[in-house]
Every structure is written in C-alpha cells, then in structure tokens.
Design a protein that fits this description.
The structure holds two protein chains of two kinds.
Chain A: H1 2-11, H2 14-40, H3 43-46, E1 53-54, E2 57-58, H4 60-86, H5 90-113, H6 118-131, H7 134-139
Antiparallel strand pairs in A: 1-2
Helix pairs in contact in A: 2-4, 2-6, 4-5, 5-6
Chain B: E1 10-11, H1 16-23, E2 26-28, H2 40-45, E3 48-52, E4 58-62, H3 69-72, E5 83-87, H4 94-111, H5 121-124, H6 127-139, H7 148-164, E6 168-177, E7 180-192, H8 194-198, E8 204-218, E9 221-229, E10 240-242, E11 251-252, E12 256-261, E13 268-269, E14 273-280, H9 285-301, E15 311-318, E16 324-325, E17 333-337, H10 343-346, H11 379-382, H12 384-387, H13 396-438, H14 445-487, H15 514-538, H16 543-562, H17 565-613
The chains are: A mainly alpha, B alpha+beta.
Chain lengths: ~150, ~625
Amino acid sequence: MAKRKKSDKKKRPIAVSVIAVAIVVLFLIRLVQFFTPLLSENVFTSGITGPFFTGWRLTGISTTLLSSASYLILSVAGIVTLIGFLHLRRWSWVLLMAWTGVSLLISLVDYFYSHANYVVMASNIIIAFALNITDVQRMFGVRRANGSSL
Amino acid sequence: MAPVSDRSTVPASASDIELLRKYEPVVCYTKGEQFYPTDVEHYVSESSLWEHHLDGHDELLVRQGELTLQKLTEFHQAEFGSVRYLRFIENLNLAETAKVLADQTLLRQKLGNSFHTGIGRLARGGILPRLVDGLFSLSFLLRGKVSAATAAAAELDYNAIFEEDPKYTYYGHVSRQNGWTIVQYWFFYSFNSWRSGFHGVNDHESDWEMITIYLFEQDGQLIPEWAAFASHDFKGDDLRRRWDDDQELQKENESHPIVFAGAGSHSSYFRRGEYQAVVNMPLPDWFLGLIRTWNKLWTDTLGQPAIDPFHIPFVDFARGDGLCIGPDSLQEWSPVLVDESTPWVSRYWGLWGLFARDPISGENAPAGPMYNRDGSPRGTWYDPLGFAGLDKIPPPPQALQMLEANCDKLSARQEELKKLIPQKAYDLQEMGTRLNGMEGDPHLAKLYLALEKEINVLSAEVRNLRRESLENTAILQSLLQRMEWMKSGIKDNPRAHIHHITLPDDPTQVLRFEHAAETWAAVSLSILLFAIAALIFFTPRYAWTGLAITLILFVVAESFLRGAFVQTVGRLTLILAMVATVILFIHFWKWIILAALLTMGVLLMANRLRELTG
C-alpha cells in the first residue's frame, strides 16, 4: 500500500500539487466568506428574522443568505473536486476548470462593483494557468499525447 | 497513378474544337440547382443595355427585345468611371413581384427539383461568427442588392429560354504559352442564386465560371498534365491538380474531368461535398494586428487553437447529386469556340447583368471572360498559366531538357572549382609563409598589415569557394536523382505544390442534439439581442457585467450543443484569468516586479553556489 502511494506521488506533476494547495486556500477563504455575512446578520444566534421580500425586492437577510449559499456551494464543490483531482479523474479537471471560471467571474464582478478579493483572484489565476499546462491536461485525459484536444 | 503513356492523348495537329471535345468536362450539380450553362445569345436578346453615369443616373442604351450580340459591341461614348451593364430582369412592381414569386413556387413544384440544407450554415460556426453574420445581413440595408423577386423572375425566364431551346453551352478557348497548350471551358449562367437559393453570400445577374486543362506535346501527341478549376476568384498553385492524381481529379473515361459545381454559386470543386466558404470582414490593419498579437499569445504561449471570430461561415453545396452534363451523361454539351476575335468577348467590357451599386461588388454582375468588373483585362484569360501557378513550371519534356542543362552547368562549375580551389589555397599558404617571415621586423610593419588584409580577403574567398563546391555537390546529387526518376517515368508527389487543399466538411460529422443545435443557431442571436435590451432597460447599472455574463452563458450553452463543452470552459476560464492577471498587475505591479526580481536573484544565487561547492 505504502509502495503504491509512493509511485502515485512520483507520477503527479508539481502543477497538480500547486493546484491542490490553491484549492485548499480557496476552500478556506470561501468558508470564511460563507460565515462572515451570517455572523454579521446574527443568523446563528437569532435565527432568520424578517421577510425575504419587500414587494418584489429582496431584503437584506435574503441577499445575505443568497451570497452565503453561493459561497457554501463554491467551497463544497471545491472539496469534491479536490478529491477527484487528487485521483487524476477527467471529470475533476472539467469541474475544476468550470469552478475556477465561475469563481473568477464572481471575483471580477466583485472587483468592478464592490471590493475585490485579490487572494482569491490570484489563486484562481494560478489554478487556471496550471490546469492549462499540456502535461497536466494529458494526465487528466483532456488532451491527446500529440497535443490535440480531445 | 497512370503513367504518361496510358493517358488519353490527342494528335498535336487536332483542331481546337476537336481538342475541346476530347477533354470536355462532366459538370455535376447539386439537387435544387436552378441555373445551368446557357448561351449568351438568348440571354442578351432578353436583356436591355444600360449605362450608369457618375452623377448617379442610369441611361437606357438599347431596350429589351432590341438587343443583339452585334448591338452589344457597338460603340457608345461615355465618361470615365461610368459603368455599362446588361439588365436581364426589368424593375418589377408590387403585383409583378407577387406573381413571379408565386410562379416560382409553382415551377419548383413542377420540376420537383428541391434542395434540402442538411446541417445549416449557422450551426457550423460559433456564436461570435453568427454575431458578425448578423451584421453582414444587416449590411444589405445599406448596400445595393439583388431582390428576391429578381431572382425568381430570372429563374422563370431562364426556364422559358431553356424550353424554347434546350441545350447546355460552354465557350471554349484554346491558347498556347511557354510550351503548354491551354484549353479553357467557360460556362455562362443567367443568374447566381447562391444567397436567395442556398443561404450563401451573394446573388447577381449572370455568372461566368471556368475550368482549364493544360497539355504538353510529346511525340506528336498532346498529353494532359494539369487541370485547374476556378473557385471564388482564388488563384495560384492550390487551384490545379495533376492529371494522374486520380483521388483529387476524378475523370470520366480517363479524358473528361468531373467538376462538382457549387449550388447557386457555380464555383468548381474537385470533390463532391459541402464546403465552408468563409467571408472575412474588411477590418482595419491595426485591428488585424491586434488579433494577430492576441493569437500569437493564445496559440504559442497558451497552446490554444487560433481564434478568428471575424469571419462569416457560408456553405457552398457541391454535392453532385443533381443533373450532370457532359460525355456519358444524360445531357450533352453544345460547344462554341471563342477567342479575341469574337466581338462580344473582346469588345464588350461591361457587366453581363445588373449593376446593383454594391460598393463591395458582391451583388454586382461580373464582366465577360476577358475583363474584370472595372474593365481591366482578366488574368485568367491573358495569363492562364499564372492563374494556376504554372508560369514557373515547364512542360515535362522541356523540364527534362532544362534539368539536363542545369546539371551540365553545375558539373562544369564543379570542374572549374576543382582547379581553382587548390590554386587559391596554394596562394594563401604562400602568402601566409611570407607573412610569418615578416614577423619581428618593425620596419616592415606597414607591409605586414597590408599583406594581412590581402590574406584575410583571399581566405574568405577560398572559404566561399569550398562552400560553393559543397553546396553544388548536394544540388547536383538532387538534380541527378530527379533526372533519373524523370527518365524512368517516376513522378513526384502530385500534391507537393498545394499549400492549402480545400476539403469538404466531414459528411459523418453530426452535431450533438442536432435539431436543438440547429434551432439554437437560428434563434440565439435574436435571444441575445432581447437579453441585451432587457439588461439595458431593467438593470442599466449592471448592463456591461450582465452583457459579459450573458455572452458567457450563451457560449457555454452553444458549446454544450456542439459537443465542445470541455474546450470552451477551458478557454473561457483562461480568458477570465488573463483579465484578472491584468487587474492584479495594475494594482500590484511593484510587488510583482519585486517578487520576480527576488525569485530570479535567489535562483541565480543557488545556481552559482552549487557551482562553487561543486
């Protein structure tokens, strides 16, 4: 068992390890982003108070819940992807790329309309470029040996 | 591949008409084609002759019913910049328009000659080309164009002419240049219905298409060596195929090349199939430069396929499943021999159909076989060799002679070098010895320097001669090898001259969720415009972000239907990562440069220390 692990480690390129670390960092940040608005709205102590809508508009609590939920989904998706990623599964590459894309989009929207989280942005950039490396794509079966896309 | 001796030959003494008939092509059309090669006489008699003047007014020179081929070539004075043109279909009023459109439907039902698109052109390209295509379609609001009613009336009139005199005509032109005998087959069509009939780029009254066969003479016989098919005003080596390339140049009875004509466009193809014809937008140079720089970064650094969204996909359907005209087909040709002495060829330089005032000319009728639209001589007529890139190629018998002459010249030079190099090398050594002898004598310093200069010059000369000798040996070996092949009848790769081979779309290619993809392709652009309108109206503050997100969602949805989800997601994420990188650099450029310098410093130090410690 120990021997198999060793040989797996040998095959994995450094970019994969870098991506794994970046996912963990992002997971932790997203987790903080999930808890922060809920804590500021005292959801854990007072529960959900007040309506979700006033007329056709969302109230403050529903906006908080929505943004927290999106961060929770992102962090959970990140962990699921990480597991598949460490097993070099093709679906995990696709999911991670999609997840990084969505995360980057949110970061850019944040940048233009509120406050930017540059650590998240930088982590996503590293993941996106690392996932694009030909050897990494080949390892996950996204690219053929001759370099063409599958 | 058939050797030269097996080819279908014709005596060199054969008349031009015999030559034409010997190699006349078989042209196969797509089911649904509305216009076939016809004779110019009937067409002209049904047309009127006009002059478009610089001040914008059009003058009628000869009215419909009175025009003949002779009257067409009569002199009419006009100012520089005016455009002379024929008009096959006169202006139609509302009632006439309705009638011809109804009659066209009835005619098509009667003929049972309907066309089915298959995978639509819009579904063959991505959403960005479709966006550009939308702009192209809207451009017809500003450009002059041929109306649908004109196309319908032309179809009715052509069929009426054909019923009166059912024949298929080609105009043959035989010329001789640089040892080649060149046989051209010109086809005249009353109308190009590519846009109105087959969702193509343009419609115009009249259409001239051409194919050429190149023969050489050997032992009193003319032997075919190349065939070139004209296609959408392209020219050069890519247009020609060698006679023995049976896969690329299909032939009936070894003598008659088979041409697959594009539906409506009448463009000629070597293989049956559906061809993606791409129309590039006329963009400014600086913008094209930006695209090139982007593509360099995108392809070289990031390993992605090049992107060019500024082209519009059109399909040229050359299926060959309709009528075939030519030897051993149901329909035969009526040949007519023409040359510079044929008055309507040389003395009518105007357009052969409606001048639609389209500034980019796509909807204006073409000029005749000898002229371009602007009245300048047409290259395909006066330089048929250059048109297919054959001006640099001698006919095979001359090629052997030229090769032998080349070998002789090189061998003679080698003999010369064999004597010259030792002689110069000896001189060099002699001068070197003299130079050595002068060393240590200060009073000879000036002479020493002068001799040293001479030695350097001679040394360079000897070096160049030795290199020339070596290069000549290599060239001579290649030439001799080639000569041996030619003498023994071995030919080189018949497609070696082709830089870009035009291939039809893969017939087995099927889109995932084909119907959904087709429907999406048809409606996506409109939905996108509705979404943009909604964004501007409901959330003006977030309009730009909303637009970017909407576009991304559209591209992802599109990629899913096209089975390219993985690649598309990867590319979109990369683009977003590049935008984010620029933002980070703008905010933290000092830190980024600092980090880069520190990293380089550490790496360099580690490297040097490793060297130091062995």
